[in-house]
Each structure stands twice: as C-alpha cells, then as structure tokens.
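Consider the following assembly input.
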Amino acid sequence: MRRLTKLSAVAAVAALALAGCGSSDSGGSDGGSKPAASKDVCKTAKGDGPKIGLAYDVGGRGDQSFNDSAYVGLKKAVEEFKGSCVEGEASDGEPESAREDRLRNMADSGATAIIGVGFAYSDSVNAVAPDYPKVNFAIVDGFDPDTKPNANVAYLTFAANEGSYLVGVAAAEKTKTGQIGFVGGVHNDLIKGFEAGYVAGAKAVKPDIKVDIAYIQESDLKGFGDPAGGKAAATGEFDKGADIVYHASGASGSGVFDAAVEAGDGKWAIGVDSDQYLTATTAQKAHILTSALKRVDVATYDFIKTVNDGKPATSYTTYDLKNDGVGYATSGGFIDDIKSDIDGYKAKIVSGEIKVPTKP
Amino acid sequence: MKSFNPRAIGLALLGPAIAIVASVLVTTLVIAAVGSSPGDFWSTMFDFPKPRSRVDIVNQTAMIYTAAVAAAIGFRMGLFNIGLEGQYTLASYAAAAFAGGAYLSGFANVFVSLLIAVAVGAAWSAIAGILKTTRGVSEVISTIMLNSIAITLVGYLLNKYGVHEGNTVHTTRIDLVSGWTPFENRDGEIWTLVIIAVLAGVGFWVLLNKTRFGFDLRASGQSETVAKASGVNPHRMIITAMALSGGVAGLIWMPALFGKATNFGLGTTFQAGLGFLGIAVALLGRNRPIGMLFGALLFAYLSVKSNDLTFATDVSPSIVQITQGVAVLAVVVAYEVVRRWRARLEQRVVAQELGTATEATA
Amino acid sequence: MTQESVAVELRGIGKRFPGVIANHDVDLTIRAGTVHALIGENGAGKSTLMKILYGVQKPDDGTIAINGREVALRTPTDAIANGVGMVFQHFMLADNLTVLENMVLGAEKLHGIGDRARAEIRRISDAFGFGLQPDVLVEKLGVADRQRLEIAKVLYRGACIIILDEPTAVLVPQEVDALFANLRELRNAGNAVLFISHKLDEVLAIADDITVMRRGTTVGTADPHTTTKRELAELMVGSELPSPETEESTVTDTVELTLANVTLADEFGRNLLTDVSLSIHRGEILGIAGVEGNGQAELVETIMGMRIPGGGTIHLGTEDVTHWHTRKLREAGIGYIPEDRHRHGLLLDAPLWENRILGHQTQAPNAKGPWINRSGARKDTQRIVAEYDVRAPGIDTPARALSGGNQQKLIVGREMSGDPVLLIASHPTRGVDVGAQAAIWDHIKRARRAGLAVLLISADLDELIGLSDTIQVILRGRLVGTFDPASVTPQDLGAAMTGGQAA
C-alpha cells in the first residue's frame, strides 16, 4: 500500500498544480477601484450600440485590480453608449493559441471593439487583427511586436513612473526615519518603471534618502499573487528601518498592507493602480498613506468612446499625468498637508521641467 | 500483459471509466453548487470543436503527450520526476536563445536547437538523480526545488540577455518552420514538430518493451530490490532514467517554439504548466503509450474547449481544471482497486486451470 | 487413553479463499492436559486452521467447541475470552519496553500495571520455569527468552489452550530442549498445547497426540509412542519420503570461488562480516549453517556484488571479482537462488517469461545486443516450465498467481540455465512442498556432478547435512567451524551455531 500512498501524493501534487495557481497577474498592476459589480453588465446589456469584447488577463473579473478596473471602464461605456459586451478570461499557463482563439471568438460573435487587458495579448492581437480589418482592437500595456503597423490596433500605455514619482515625493516628505521601501511583485521591465519613478520622486525631495528595494520573485509570475511573499518582503524593510513601503505587486499588496499594520503606528504602506484605501480592511485603512493611480478604466472607456464616435484610436496612446491617466489618491486625508507640494511636482512633470526616468 | 481476452480488456478499461464518471459527476455537482447550469456546461463542452479549435487540440495534445512520456519514463521505474516544469522551462529557453542567435541556418538550426533542448533538460534533471544517488535526497523534493531555481534562472538570463520590447522581454525572434494547414489560413497550422510527440510515443514503447534497458527500467519500477539482485545498477539506473525523462521534457515546448511562438518570453509566448499536465496525464494513462495518448487528448480537448465556456455559459473556464484534477485522483484510486480485483481474478484462474485448488496461502 | 476432558473440538471446518480451498472437512480433537502436535508440509493448511481457531479468520463451514461448548470466534478477542491464546512465529514484542510492560500492554485491566501485575508474572514464571525478570528490557532478551515471554503473555491473559506456530524454527537444538521442558510443565498444569511443526523428531519427542494434515484436510492421527518418523512422513506427503543424500564425492581440485579475509561493515561501522575466508571447488557443495541473522544474507549479497566489502578479496576462478557488479558476476556464470524470492527473485506482477529474463537480461537466449529477444526467452521459459515441472497455466501468467513451490522451481530452473559455474543457493527449498523439494535437491545434485560449485545456505540442518560436502558454521559474521557432514550431528552444529564451541 506504500505504492498507493506515493501515487496518491503525486496525484495530489498534480491536482494542486492544476487547480491551485489561478491568481497570478502578468500585468502586475491593478487598477480597479471597486470589487466586481454584483450586476453583470454583459448579461443584462442588450443595447444596439457598439458590441465590445473584453479579454481579461489571468485572474479575470473580481481580482480587485487590473481586470476589475478594465471592467469599470467597460461598464461605464456600455451603459453610456447603450451597447452590449462579451467577456473572456485567460487561464493560467494557457498557450498563445488560447488567447488568439478568445479574440477570434469575440470578433466572430460580432464585437466591433475588442480590448485585451495586459501585455500578454500583444502577440495574439498582432496575429488576429489583420484577419478582422473592420474590428478595432486595443491592448492595455501593449505594444506592436513587429515592424508592420496595424491600422486597427490601439496600444494603451501608462506612464506609471510618473504616478510613482508623486507617491515617492509623498513618502519622502512623510518619512520620519529617512528611509523608505519598495516591494515589486516580479522583477520585470514593467515594475522596474514603478521603482524608477518612486526612487526619483523620493530623491527629488530628500537627496540623501535611503530606499530599500525588494522583489518578491525574480521572474516567476507568482509574485503578483503571493500576499505572504509581499508581507515577508515588506516586514523585512520595516525591520531595517523603513517607515513607508510602496508596493507594485498586484494581489500580493494585501500582504504589504498587513505588514504595515503589524509594524504598528507610524508605519505606512502606499497602494498601487487603484485607490486601494477604498477596498482595504478597516485595520489596513489607517496605514494606507496614498496610492499611485493607473487609470485602466479611463483608458478602456476612452478607447470605446473613440470607436463609438467613429474615429477609433489606433497606434500608441500614453496615459500620463498630463491627461490624468495616472496620478495619486488622497483618500484618508493623510497627505492633505503636503498636497500642494506634490501638485507642484506634478505641474513640473506636466510642463516637462522634470523628466521622470523609466528605468532604475 | 499480452493476453487479449475480453475480460482483461474490460478490466483495463474499467479504471478510466470509473475515473471519467467520477470527474463528470464531481464537475456537475460543483457547477450546480455554484448555481450555474451543468446542462449548458456539458452541451458547450460536447459541442463539436471549430476548425481552429481542432488544430489547437492537435497541437496541444502533442505537447501534453510529450510531457506525459517524459513523466512516464520516471514513473515506470518508480521515480517521481515532478521537475518536468523546470526542465522544459530551462531547456526551452536555452533552445530558443540558441535558435535566436542564428549561428546556423535553416534545418540545421532547428535540429541543433532541439539537441540543446534535450541536453539541457537531461542535465537539469540529472542533478536530481545525482542528488538522490549520492546524498539520498528524494527526487520529489529536489525536483520541486529545481523548478523554482530554473524559472528564476531563466528570468534572470532573459532580463540580462533578452530583447526588451514594450513591457516584455523575450529571446530573439526566429523564423518559423511552416506546418500543415488543414483548414483556412486563419484557423492555424498543425506544427511540423508535432512529430516529436509521435516519435516520443513510439520510442517510449520500443524502449520499454523491446530493449534490455527498458526491461531494467520496468524491473526497477516493480521492485527495486529484485532489480538490484538481477544485476541492475540502481545508481546508474536512477541517473539515466532521470536524464532520459528530463531530455524528453526538454522537447515539450519545441513544437510551439518553431511552429508559432518565434521566441521565448515568460508570461507571454512561453506556455507554462505543461510539465504538471504531463504528470497528470501520465497518471491518467497509467504510463502506457496508448493510455497517455487518450489522456493527453482529453486534457487538450478540455483546455481548448474551456475557452468557449465564457461565451455560451456563465461557468468559469477554471472549472475544467477541477474536471482534470478529479479525473487524475479518481484514476489513481480506481486503478488500485481494479489492480487488486485483477490479482485475485488471476489467482482464481490459475487455481481453476490447474484443478488443484487445495494449496493454502503461505 | 483415560477419561480426560476435551479442550477443543473442531468438526468439519472448511475455509475457502478466492481460487484456493485452504481447509476442508477438518476434524481435530485436543484433550486438556496434553501436547497435541499438528503436522503437515508447508501449504497443507495448518496456518489457516490456526487462524480460524484464534479468531483471525472465520470458517466457512464447521463448528468449534471449546470445553464442550460450541462457540463462534469472530476476533482474537473472542478467542482469548474463551481461553485460546496463540504464539506467532514472528514475535510481537516492543523492544524498548520491559518484560512487565510488554506483558500488561493491552491487558491492563486484568492485574493492573503495578505490583499486582509483577506478582502475577512471577507466579507464572515460577510455575512453568520461565525465568522471566519483569523489569528487564525486551531488547536485552535472546530469542528463547522472547519466546517464553510470548507464552507467558498468553497465560497472563488467562489462556488454557495455547497454540504455538512452529516454535522451534527460530531455536537451536539446546533451546528446543528447554522449550519442551516448559511445555511439559504447561501440560502438567492441565493446559492444552497445540504444537504446529513439520519437524518429526521434535513432534515425536514432545507430543501426546498427533494429527496430520495434507492438502487442506486432516488425513489421520497417530500415537507418538507407536508410530515411526517414516510413517508420519508418509502420512504427510502421501507418498514415499524423499531425503537428500549425498552420493559419492564429486569434489575436484579446481577452486571456483575463493574468499580471503572478506570484511563488511554496516553504515555505523559495525562489522557484519569479519575475516571470512572460504573456498569452493568445482563439484563441491559448501553448506553454511548458522542461526538466522548471523551474516548469511550479508555473505551472499557480498559475493553477489550487491554489497561492496570493506576488506579482503573475492576470486571467481582466477579472476579477482571483489569489486565487480552483480550483472558482471552473473554474466560470469553465477546463479543465484535468493533467500527471499519476493524481495530478490521475482517480479510478481510480470509474466513468467519476463521472470525468465530477470537476472539474465544480457544473456542468451534472452537478449540480442541491446534488444530483448522475446521469442527466445519465451521458448526457454517453456523449457523450464516443462523440465522443472512448474505448474502454471501458461508462461503469460503473472508470477504472483503461482504457489510458492512453483515460484521457487521457476527460479531454480532459471538459475540453472546457461551452465553456471557457481550457484549461490539461499534456502533453496524454504516454503516449498515436499515434491518440489525433492526435485530441487535432485537438480542441485545433478549440477554438482556436472562440476558446479555450490554455496548452500539453509536453516534446515538435515538439508545441509544431506547435501553438503563440507559444512561451515557462521556466527556473528565469522566462520567459526568446519564440519564433515558425514560425521556431524545436529547437536554438534547447534553448539557451534550458538557459540558453544569455538573452532
């Protein structure tokens, strides 16, 4: 029976591996402002306006981040333009062909505007778009992987480094120890942009400030869905003397908030993508200084609007401080006293006086 | 083993049949429990796939099957190589990086890249074998660790040497090997290197049933002590089997690389998770070449079809993972039960045929 | 016999397992105050009958009456409640507990766990001459003491019908005598003892009544005072009794195997084999006698290349094979009949023809280069099945389905194939029926005449004496004495095996 035991153990491992890892977020940047709405707009909306397809990244609706944020924009657009919509969700470890199939399914079902949430859709949109010249595609955080321009694809990118710069300013102004921290989910180029802006903002206020940098994973996308890892990383930084920690780690961020709560009074965390103060628990709220905003909902809505207006956006659109595509949150009122300072920096970035780096 | 009487075949099919019924039942219950309609789910799943889905199913089956063969090589000798995931991740990266370097051209580039994939997968896997033979580290533990190390290593190398593009990083793009287009162009191609799966399956069967090495491998799997007494060198056997398993694992993703992906990028083009699927399918197919083929086909079918769920039903595609997981667990239990029945049956048959049913159990 | 009360009466007991009728129409009457011997070959159904009497298995037919009252024994607990106790061949004792603790374990309610229990143990020990000391750790006890403790445990639980399953198998002759003295005390105190054995000398020495089993049923009873060994044996086997008898010596001058000062240590550095030196000539059978666990298994595994000796050399012919691996040794012509055929000899779930290949994977007719020669192996399996009388429906039958004797015959046939130069035979007839035993002996003797060198390890002293040209005794990993089987007695060997006589 030892045989059976060993077999069962392996079967259990396999089953866990199959079923247990649905929470990574390859975008690493959450942006929704509210949990998934209880009413599902795509089930109820039957308008004869534009039909919109929204292809989520891994995690899908209800991730309280990136995907939900896109849904908020979708919902607003569908209601406003009396349209209808169809959704699809990526599963973990799915092949390129599954993403393509999802987009094609949407186009075949009559969608005229299709949005892929997350840069993982870049290649699949590039492959699918030429087959559907009448359909308009958009990719959040996306890019064109080849040199052949696509006439019907919009790439919606965010100057996340600029939003991060502002919360870096806030952290530097608020720190009492002269030491702050950063926790990234995965050490990839996207998150490095967050780090770069944050560090630059902090140094602009206090050139001698010490910034601790930690990443939960070097390359494993699990780093975006690992609250325990986020907590461990943040606790390490608090222990070393930081009193404010900014995270760009998707769903792992809740662990960073918990670390701030446990570190006690005077220790703060900074949220990312959405105004995370609004979705945090009561205990966490007292420790969320601010959040760097990345308005995926705005980008989604704007794109749909251009399609509805008959002038679909194509090529690259950057969402930055200038068009309020990124920013910072003031919920909780913890940074009201330094708001004018932050806005001063914001004005300088908008005017081009300050150039925010994109790489650390 | 070689008796083709109907009862033996019936018994052989009983295990998977029980497993499939159990997984259908559990899936139905779960769907009903979350308030969705199991009827919608099953009618969507049983809907005949679209042409492009059929192409995808073939391609996916090939990769899952290769992974299952890799797992089965270890399983057949009682080695649990959980590290397929890390082995093929590292091997895929190495092969893609080499191919992207374009040191060779055309067919030679593809062929040498495949060799590199095999070599890297084998070497990575052999580490676990060496740890087991020299330090007594369970291969289950070491391969899980090596999975983490592999993915971290690949991420590091990719960041350092890869092509940074948009928010992603990947290896240099390569020219694809054109495949076979059974339907329209837009429905995709069946990749040329799908042939790897066929070769892996046939090779596995020949190795196992026709060679001395295969005999030693099976003997080691059935009883380590018997194999040792028969002259099998257990240390060498463990390292060889691990390396072989890892070498085949190295090939898992190669069809996709040369058929579609053009580059290796974590979270983008690279399809993670095939290693774990392979382990599950090896269990499902009882490490038999034909059994695993059906298992791989079933899993590929479920995965590909799950994409349709969001259009026709409100069931999450993730439910398919429950179906797959339950199928594997159920098959392990069902097979053990059937194995015991079969053993008893055989004893009875022997006693009947000899007509001397008087010997007591010793 | 006199008017004594009947302790146990079994009538028409039958028990069927899938594919096997283990017992049928078994009748057995055990009188109180006697030692009743139940004899029969391995596989005759003795073990099953005992298990039925001890409540481990439920009979399909028949009745059990204890002290005149019909009872249903569903579990061992029922059996104990009815005064039936059993001492198994493999002791069930906790080494790290004391005699007292082992005794009261599971029977705490009877006499508590303190002084009352201690007093009871002393009473039992004194009454039957067990010499048990309640506070000694069991790991310090020898085999004989452990057996006495097991018997005492049964008595402590109130048994008056005591089943002993081959109690002498683990004992040397002197210890057997002591055991018999204890059993006589038990008998004199009015207990009934059921003594299971297949050693006829012992049975005749101790039993008051004898019941013989063969092929699952009781075939007769005998009076130990009037019957002879030969008559008993014929009752057991139903035919003439075979016995191994060496013919004229075929020992040649050519040395086939030489061990010189071979030493083997375990992982803790303790010596399992110390300075073992021996040589076997072509045509010679060298027997190794010893109480089990004195290094026999290690010796065999060292010669077979499954363990690497720490010191000394091993030569096969003139070749130094000390560091050769098992496969190379087998290719050089060593046949190996392992002690435990399930652990070392057979792939139970593989068909017979694949088991024919086992151990000879690289040799004709099983292999051609790196390929398995399926038809060659199958054909040769047919030959073995025919020549060695392996009773199986076909060569595709899994080995598991065969009886122990047939499994062993397959192994012997396999290891004799391909003209080996040396045969390592560990307990070659253990657990096989009489017919198979005689056949195996014949095969070994025939090969010896053809010039085969044989290392024979056996727990059966008759077998050793009957087959060997020379006998060496192994004790605690050393060879401690050499004997000539023509003149040695089991008593001499027994003394050497327990260290009573140094050589």
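Chain C has 18 helices and 22 strands. Ask yourself how this observation constrains the way the partners meet.
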